[in-house]
Amino acid sequence: MSTERPGQFPYTRGIHPTMYQGRLWTMRQYAGFGDAADTNRRFKYLLEKGQTGLSCAFDLPTQMGYDSDHPMAAGEVGKVGVAIASVDDMATLLDGLPLGEVSTSMTINATAGTLLAFYAAVARARGVPTSAIRGTIQNDVLKEYMARGTYIYPPRPSMRLITDIFAWCGTEAPQWNTISISGYHIREAGSTAAQEIAFTLADGIAYVEAAVAAGLRVDDFAPRLSFFFNAHNDFLEEIGKFRAARRIWATVMRERFGSKDPKSQMLRFHTQTAGSTLTAQQVDNNVVRVTLQALAAVMGGTQSLHTNSKDEALALPTESSARLALRTQQVIAYESGIASHPDPFGGSYVVEGITERLEAEALRLIGEVDALGGMVAAIERGFPQREIQDSAYRAQLAVDKKEQIVVGVNGFTEAEAPVEGLLRVDRALERAQVERLTRFKKDRVAVDVKDALSRLRDAAEGTENTMPRVLAAVEAKATLGEIADTLRGVFGVYQESVVV
Fold first, then answer.
1. How many domains does the chain have?
2. CA–CA separation, 175 and 52 (whole Å)
3. What is the rounded (10 degree) CA torsion for 455, 461, 465, 466?
């Protein structure tokens, strides 16, 4: 048995000596739907029920850099997240929330810099300095190319935008986590636990390499890197996965990048329970699945946790189901006793063996990515995409052959009545959102917008950091779509090659 203690390199047992004895994980329920006012009400509801951090989902037009009035946005406004097209939308989203106190996570990637600029502009307008805002932008575009698809620009200019954010936050928003390197969507696309570790950390390596190549010192930006993992159904394997990921990252940062600051070596991560495991059949079973997954995340040492709601396989969560998901975390935190023990399964020969197996498998895959020239080159050649597709196929085949039983789906089935009371987004919302955006554009000073976008284009065409120009454009009342279109004009749009 290892003599390593929690809080000691390579942090297999946790990044803090006392873990949750000193401070519980952040309970950060993911929310976002409809317009900014709808989501603001849900945020306040969750904070009232005991949530300790905000986490925002955005609709597809916002993720893809289209304003709510763009033809490509038709039918998608406010559907899978909140519609945010302007700084006014962001002001409504954050109305009445203590921006200098609450931590806000935003699941946004290709347009991450613009959403961060919206957030910073609203804070500044309220007298909260940019240096005081706390939160995270996902800002992980590499996983979009291999698993999720909400990319805009090609990989290499996208990497430039990411390192611009690293550099800008380093001086202007030092409490903001500049990236949440996401294995969650890799797992949702069908990867194995080892692939989730490997491709997530390989993405992280690529971001660190890009930042160092841009002239940043590793210990100046690495402490603000964070990760985002899935909590899947195999309870013990998931605990081992989190332990193995911490161990690999600590070693990579110290030995590969020469970091000296222990905070650069600590893998800090948010966890979300596995949406892909939720079933439309027998939805109450999802409460059990989420509870087991949340337990695995806590026993694995997560810093932040979202628990999915039982009805999410059918619709956006209702208030009552979101409350039950939050209560699941609170019962684990305050009633189970688990929080009293750092790395409670440490020393278990089963968990230690799983940790070592996953570490070895992940390191093998990272080595294959390195041999291809790094993750950007590997994505361009389709390597991680093929690996994930193959794993997803094998997993579905196991369900189809009943080698893997999913309760209520291919085993223990029964006739069910339709689920009542699901949340539906009002179709009139899109029209109202477009009308607000039209008024916003009409009331601004057009020449100021044109000048700010021109300066942003010049920065993108050169080597200047783009973030100050994005913020200036936002404060001149340029919209998200106008900023994205300006960058599309410089960088182009990525066209995915077919992976077979």
1. 1
2. 17
3. 60
Can you tell me which residue has the tokens 């190549």? 213
With beta carbons less than 8 A apart as the criterion, state whether 31 and 74 touch: no
| 161, part of any domain | yes
3-class secondary-structure state, position 4: coil
Question: What's the domain range around 197?
Answer: 19-400
Nearest-5° Cα angle at 206, 205 to 210: 120
User: Quick one: CA dihedral 412, 417, 422, 426, positive or negative?
Assistant: positive
Give per-residue pLDDT as tens, 243-288.
999 999 999 999 999 999 999 999 999 999 999 999 999 999 999 9
Rounded Cα–Cα distance for residues 198 and 196 (Å): 6
How far apart, in whole angstroms, are the C-alpha atoms of residue 290 and residue 294? 6
The C-alpha atoms of residue 153 and residue 161 are separated, in whole angstroms, by 10
State how far the alpha carbon of 43 is from the alpha carbons of 37, 93, 145, 156, in Å.
Answer: 10, 9, 30, 35
Structural domain contains residue 406? no
pLDDT tens track for 165-221 = 999 999 999 999 999 999 999 999 999 999 999 999 999 999 999 999 999 999 999
Based on its alpha-carbon atoms, the radius of gyration of the chain, rounded to whole angstroms, reads 22
**Is 47 part of a structural domain of the chain?**
yes
Question: d(Cα 72, Cα 66) in Å, to the nearest integer?
Answer: 7
Cα–Cα distance for residue pair 411/343, rounded to 1 Å: 34
- Domain membership flag for residue 215: yes
Q: 45-84 pLDDT, tens per residue?
A: 999 999 888 899 999 999 999 999 999 999 999 999 999 9
**What are the residues whose beta carbons fall under 8 Å from the beta carbon of 404, sequence distance 6 or more?**
395, 398
Q: Where are the alpha helices (DSSP H) in 252-318?
A: 262-265, 285-299
Q: What are phi and psi of 109, to 5 degrees?
A: -125, -75
The token pair that represents 454 in the structure block:
């021109």
Q: Please give the Cα distance from 168 to 289 (Å, whole number).
A: 40
* CA–CA dist 232, 272 (Å, integer): 9
Kindly report the CATH number assigned to the domain that includes residue 91.
Answer: 3.20.20.240
The amino acid at 26: T
DSSP helix, strand, coil percent of the chain (3-state; round to 5)? 55, 10, 35
Report H helices in 273-427.
Answer: 285-299, 319-335, 349-371, 375-380, 383-400
